[in-house]
Amino acid sequence: MKTPWAQRQLIMTPRIQELHFTLIAHRILHMLILLLLARWGYSHPQCLDYKPPFQPQQPLVFCKEYSKFGCCDLQKDEEIRIRFYTIMENFDHSGYVTCSRYIHSILCQECSPYAAHLYDAEDANTPMRILPGLCGNYCADYWHRCRYTMSLLLEDLGVLHQYANITMAIEEDRKRFCDFLELKDKQYCYPNVLTSAELNANLGFVRENPKGCLELCLQEVANGLRNPVAMIHADDGTHRFFVAEQLGYVWVYLPNGSRIDRPFLNLTHAVLTSPWAGDERGFLCIALHPRFTTVRKAYVYYSVSVNKEERIRISEFTLSPHDDNQLDHSSERTILEVTEPASNHNGGQLLFGHDGYLYIFIGDGGRAGDPFGKFGNSQNKSTLLGKALRVDVEDNDDAPPYSIPWDNPFLWEKETRPEIYAYGVRNMWRCSIDRGDPVTGGGRGRMFCGDVGQNKYEEVDIIVKGGNYGWRAKEGFSCYDRKLCQNSSLDDILPIFAYPHKLGKSVTGGYVYRGCEMPNLNGLYIFGDFMSGRLMSLKENVTTGEWKYNEICMGRDQICRFPKLINSFYKYIISFAEDEAGELYFLATGAPSATTRAGFIYKIVDPSRRAPPGKCSIKPLPVKIKGKLIPFRPKAEFVINKKPTTTAAPTTTRKPTTATKMPRKTHIIVKPPMPKRDKTPPSSLPSPTTATSKMRQTPTSATITKAPTTVQKATTPATTTHTGYRTTITTASRVAQTTTPPTRTHGRTFKYSPSTTFQPPASSTPPSAPTKAPQVPQPTEHYPGLTTQQPPYWAQVSTPSSYKRPFIHTTPHKLQEDKMRLGEKLETAGEGNQLLKRPRGRGRGTKRGRGLRAGSVRLVSTDGLPNRGRVEIFVRGQWGTVCDDLFTSKAGTVVCRQLGFKTALAVLKRAAFGEADGSVRILLDDVECEGQERSLLDCKRSRVGKHNCSHAEDVGVICG
């Protein structure tokens, strides 16, 4: 005997069944989202452009509640205000009074600091809500008072035609209404998210974990470096930076991350170093003249061997007259040489102060405890070892290499080197000049240094003229040589901070953050430790002069879930750097050897707050390039890619039905006609059901009969109860008044296309039937530095080569299962009544390739064979060829696996399968694969669109 539920199912009309299953699918989707949220833990502030919130430069006028912190600037606020008044034109006075606060609140949630959570936008693999998520009680109250405003909100968004089939039904049913709008997370739904003390207590401030550790994130900037020891900028408006390797190379990087293939300087023939891990000798620093654009000089600090005697050499180079990105190697002029009695404690810092003088920091000569002489080198002012020096290198072309500034503190002291600016230092490693507070200028000109300790303490000092920093009498705040310590001067300069070796054993000095992008970090001195991999910070109490210590740890996945951000790094922190805009970086490696390409550059990012949009925009001056540019390809896995892949809920195909009238008091909406099917592919990807038919149908089977539409007139409103709405008749023509894709908010463009029967891509051979490609593990590069046992505060670091990109396949139902790459999003066709997510990418695609993802491949064969043909790849919205003389069977196997075959039987070059016509671009060249990549875009290759071949060399593949 059938149950009452089953009996009811039997008598349900097809239309009601469709609505029923659509709502079920919608609920399943929300359940999946909730499960993912539970897995990730708590949410965090994030805007719909996938960036942190900010404080607008000018107070908002309409969404005033988000003037202090949120996701809208004044321009966005004005756009929301215009939308509000456009919607409210449909109301009379009583309706305006009743419903305006609901409309205002719902529209302004785009400005909420939790906007991404309210719109389910934190997960790039799930559909984003069209309207923000409401709390249950608020939704019930909204339904009771102003339920019919939902259609107005959807119409304002330009998507009412997507929901016209269900809007009228759910507006009459409170449960369905709130199932559509409610966000089940009771803490983060609106308006509870505004009143949660736990969420809003420190909103907009740097997040601290329960142990007080500041949680920051990173962005990978460069990789594959051999012990990067220094990174500087020219301060010339180009925003390029110069990176020095211990081996003796200096490279030029442009603001877009690309590197010039020719080195700025190559001193590998002269630099003294070795491949031993931890060797302190080598190329240690570079400084550009503060007026580099006019003086065109650079100064370098490196180790040399002269007659088997180890020395420190400071040299001057002049910029090449023919290339602004290369020094004239023949122009080297030695400024200063200092003999090193041992191979360690070489110092290694050069920098120009705000006074225009060159500062040189030299170590104490090496060995343990500064054993040279009665008091050691550092306390002996007749030697340059263990000192901070200051010299004048201005106007030295026809004069000695340098002169002594007139106000050097020991200029007139007997048996004292006049170059000395400060003394009593052990081995200062990395110093910096404070730019000063961007508003008040406070702190400007202060010189911070990290001084590596002996066996108990590491210290951070502020260098002052004539200061004695105590070594070897003192180490940190404690005595090292007790006899010297008892007789030392009370005027010795104590460090602003010292830490014991349980925290780290080799300090790396950093910078005071004075950049624009991260306001919360202003005034924070950020430094690290080479041995322990700790990132640390100091914050000055201006009133007391004391410095507060906070450790910096990597934010959890949820905190760093922003584009391009990572939350792990290699532990050997070699140096810190500052770019021309004042943003902060650090240089680290996985293996501290001058010959191992394990070095990375990371940018420090605060995910809790950013500067207002447009405030920190820079326009780098152009740089004339001679040679080639090597594009940057990150190796670390972005946090935003760590989340699990989800598949959108399946939808059923609608059948054309005749529109019916649904009178509702005085506001009458007549159901619009079904969108006319045509042969224009939609901008979004097809649903699994439709997508499968897309690959199998022929053009002749695409004819669909348009359903007839009946538009009925409104009934007389006098017989209904007044609701406050103005008496309006919304006809089908009003609902579907345009087929032009309306521009929408949320940092994306919403593209609507009518329901369509899809055509196969313009290829002579359709893709073969999908088969599951074998999952081959990615190789992992081994770095010795990672064999050290990791302390509990240090996040596990992903090896550079372990970044696994998703497998790309052209079969649509497989697309639903794979992760998205290159910033694109998974979309579903407009056939089903489900929440859609607007595409993030800007590419428009061609008519023959719309809906495919970057990296999809196909074989074009004049014989119509599915397993062989010319290789074409879909990149940046167009199909193009692969033209390559390096293409091997391994690369061919990558193509075949994408198409469902096991391997490549043969790879043919010189256009063996025919040349592409002139309208098809050559998109890839110099492709080299390891055989385990899932897409040609994952392989080593030239930049997309850059090649040195012709269509006569188009690659072909035979799969098997």
Automatic annotation (TrEMBL):
Keywords: Disulfide bond, Glycoprotein, Membrane, Secreted, Signal, Transmembrane, Transmembrane helix
Ranges annotated as biased composition (Polar residues): 694-704
Region of interest: Disordered: 670-790
UniProt feature, compositional bias: Low complexity: 705-744, 753-762
One GO CC annotation: extracellular region
Location of the SRCR domain: 857-960
SMART domains per record: SR
Regions that span the bilayer: 21-42
Cystines in this chain: 929-939
Keyword Disulfide bond: yes
Subcellular location, record wording: Secreted
Family label: Belongs to the HHIP family.
Protein name in UniProt: SRCR domain-containing protein
